């Protein structure tokens, strides 16, 4: 089923699309922890390699934002700032 | 109040749950069939004249009562496995909801379009109104659109919990440090209730789950309203 584009009730309200991280065949299981982690690492690696303005990196951001609990992202952000993030970026 | 309705499963609010109800009835019919046959046999055994008391073997009947249960089991296993794999399927979700179990409340996160986060506590008995269900209603309900595939990510912050909505046929354990995924699609608007299903401490019984399922239009209004103050929401609108 294609993503559901929905018009909000009133005219002045903007149209927006309900979309989320798609199914990823690398993570076909109930356990999606790795999907969240990999997207987070990929996003920051992508930005490191391609530069901060590189648009396609935003795909990974969307994925990890949809999947990771906010607390996890905050924790990892702090770890990256303090140079003690356990993943390879 | 306990009514006779509590004796059976809740009405299905998702296609999967409807199938589960059918499967449950199907298995119950088979059970009824077996129980009837076995009780008939027991009654006749007791009441007959014991004419074949010294019969040593009967190949025919032994083959039959070995093969017949095998066939019956196949009729149970096939639909059961079909449902098991259907429940596992993720149907290209349009929305991801994150549920985080805490001692002793659930918190929810929506982050597909805007960052939205709230806690959901049980309404205590003193604050109840006429319309609230005791031990089941929460101060902040989860609002979800109907007829759209939803991905649910369940995790916990402290100990094991379990996120359950019986009328959706969904039950997923919440484990700290792990993201469990399940998916469902709600087929009608309404309010759905569930309770934590993994013993998680003193107030395990007092952290219910409440879903308000509404048409997609109203869901969007709800999201917009809740995130009006947030700045990054406006950025999403512009982009």
Automatic annotation (TrEMBL), chain A:
Pfam families: COX6B (PF02297). Disulfide bonds join 36-68, 46-57. CDD domains: Cyt_c_Oxidase_VIb. It is found in: Mitochondrion. Gene3D superfamilies: Cytochrome c oxidase, subunit VIb. Keywords: Disulfide bond, Mitochondrion. InterPro entries: COX6B-like, CX6/COA6-like_sf, Cyt_c_oxidase_su6B. Its main location: mitochondrion. The keyword Disulfide bond applies. One of its GO terms (cellular component) is respiratory chain complex IV. Transmembrane segments: none annotated. Belongs to the cytochrome c oxidase subunit 6B. Component of the cytochrome c oxidase, the last enzyme in the mitochondrial electron transport chain which drives oxidative phosphorylation. This is Cytochrome c oxidase subunit. It comes from Coptotermes formosanus (Formosan subterranean termite). The lineage of its organism: Eukaryota, Metazoa, Ecdysozoa, Arthropoda, Hexapoda.
UniProtKB/TrEMBL annotation, chain B:
Keywords: Copper, Electron transport, Magnesium, Membrane, Metal-binding, Mitochondrion, Mitochondrion inner membrane, Respiratory chain, Translocase, Transmembrane, Transmembrane helix, Transport. GO terms for molecular function: copper ion binding; cytochrome-c oxidase activity; oxidoreductase activity. It is a multi-pass membrane protein. It catalyses: 4 Fe(II)-[cytochrome c] + O2 + 8 H(+)(in) = 4 Fe(III)-[cytochrome c] + 2 H2O + 4 H(+)(out). GO terms for biological process: ATP synthesis coupled electron transport. Its cofactor is Cu cation. It is found in: Mitochondrion inner membrane. Residues 92-225 form the Cytochrome oxidase subunit II copper A binding domain. Residues 1-91 form the Cytochrome oxidase subunit II transmembrane region profile domain. PROSITE patterns: COX2 (PS00078), COX2_CUA (PS50857), COX2_TM (PS50999). Binds a copper A center. NCBIfam families: CoxB. Belongs to the cytochrome c oxidase subunit 2 family. Component of the cytochrome c oxidase (complex IV, CIV), a multisubunit enzyme composed of a catalytic core of 3 subunits and several supernumerary subunits. The complex exists as a monomer or a dimer and forms supercomplexes (SCs) in the inner mitochondrial membrane with ubiquinol-cytochrome c oxidoreductase (cytochrome b-c1 complex, complex III, CIII). Component of the cytochrome c oxidase, the last enzyme in the mitochondrial electron transport chain which drives oxidative phosphorylation. The respiratory chain contains 3 multisubunit complexes succinate dehydrogenase (complex II, CII), ubiquinol-cytochrome c oxidoreductase (cytochrome b-c1 complex, complex III, CIII) and cytochrome c oxidase (complex IV, CIV), that cooperate to transfer electrons derived from NADH and succinate to molecular oxygen, creating an electrochemical gradient over the inner membrane that drives transmembrane transport and the ATP synthase. This is Cytochrome c oxidase subunit 2. It comes from Coptotermes formosanus. The gene is COII.
């Amino acid at each position: 089923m294609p993503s559901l584009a929905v018009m909000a009730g009133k005219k002045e309200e903007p149209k927006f699309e309900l979309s989320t991280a798609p199914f990823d065949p690398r993570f076909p299981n109930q356990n999606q922890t790795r999907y969240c982690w990999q997207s987070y690492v990929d996003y920051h690696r992508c930005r490191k390699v391609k530069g901060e303005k590189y648009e396609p990196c935003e795909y990974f951001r969307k994925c990890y934002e949809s999947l990771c609990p906010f607390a996890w992202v905050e924790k990892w952000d702090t770890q990256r700032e303090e140079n003690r993030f356990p993943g390879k970026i | 109040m306990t009514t006779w309705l509590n004796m059976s499963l809740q009405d299905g609010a998702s296609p999967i749950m409807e199938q589960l109800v059918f499967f449950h009835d199907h298995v119950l019919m088979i059970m009824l069939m077996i129980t009837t046959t076995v009780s008939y046999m027991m009654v006749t055994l007791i009441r007959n004249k014991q004419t074949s008391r010294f019969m040593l073997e009967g190949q025919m009947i032994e083959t039959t009562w070995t093969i017949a249960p095998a066939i019956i089991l196949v009729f149970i296993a096939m639909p059961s496995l079909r449902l098991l794999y259907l429940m596992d399927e993720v149907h290209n979700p349009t929305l991801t909801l994150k549920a985080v179990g805490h001692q002793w409340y659930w918190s929810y996160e929506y982050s597909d379009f805007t960052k939205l986060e709230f806690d959901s506590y049980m309404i205590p008995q003193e604050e109840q109104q006429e319309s609230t269900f005791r031990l089941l209603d929460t101060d902040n309900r989860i609002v979800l659109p109907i007829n759209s595939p939803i991905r649910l990510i369940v995790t916990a912050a402290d100990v094991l919990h379990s996120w359950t909505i019986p009328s959706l046929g969904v039950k997923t354990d919440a484990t700290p440090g792990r993201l469990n995924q399940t998916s469902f699609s709600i087929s009608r608007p309404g309010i759905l209730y569930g309770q934590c299903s993994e013993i998680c401490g003193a107030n395990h019984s007092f952290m219910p789950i409440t879903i308000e399922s509404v048409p997609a239009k109203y869901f969007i209004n709800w999201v917009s309203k809740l995130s009006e103050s947030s700045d990054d929401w406006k950025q999403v609108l512009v982009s």
